[in-house]
Amino acid sequence: MGDDDIPAELTEQDRWDGWVMARLDDGWCAALDRDTMLCTIYERRPMICSDYQVGDSDCIGERLLLI
User: Fold this and answer.
1) pLDDT tens digit string along 9-59?
2) What distance lies between CA 32 and its chain's CA centroid?
3) What's the rounded Cα separation, in Å, for the pair 50 and 44?
4) In the chain, what is the straight-line distance between the N-terminal and C-terminal CA atoms, in Å?
């Protein structure tokens, strides 16, 4: 996550000791508002998230992995 400015409570260490966005038990990002399906930290979202465009094939593919 490098230079990203993400609230610490929304991150966790992965098995390789890298920092990633935390996920809830349902597999969705901890920063996602389930009612609106919008990011609650949009202005501070990590670079990887800003690289995805809503509705493009990469976004749809990632969402399908969580269903």
Assistant:
1) 999 999 999 888 999 998 889 999 989 888 999 988 888 888 877 777 877
2) 7
3) 10
4) 25
**What does the block give as tokens for 32?**
């996602």
pTM for the predicted model, two decimal places:
0.68
Query: Taking a C-beta distance cutoff of 8 angstroms, is the pair 27, 67 a contact?
Result: no
Report the b/e string of 19-49 with b at 16+ CB within 10 A: eebbeeeeeebebbeeeeeebebeeebbeeb
Listed by start position, the domains of the chain span: 8-65
Q: Is 32 helix (H, G, I), strand (E, B) or coil?
A: strand
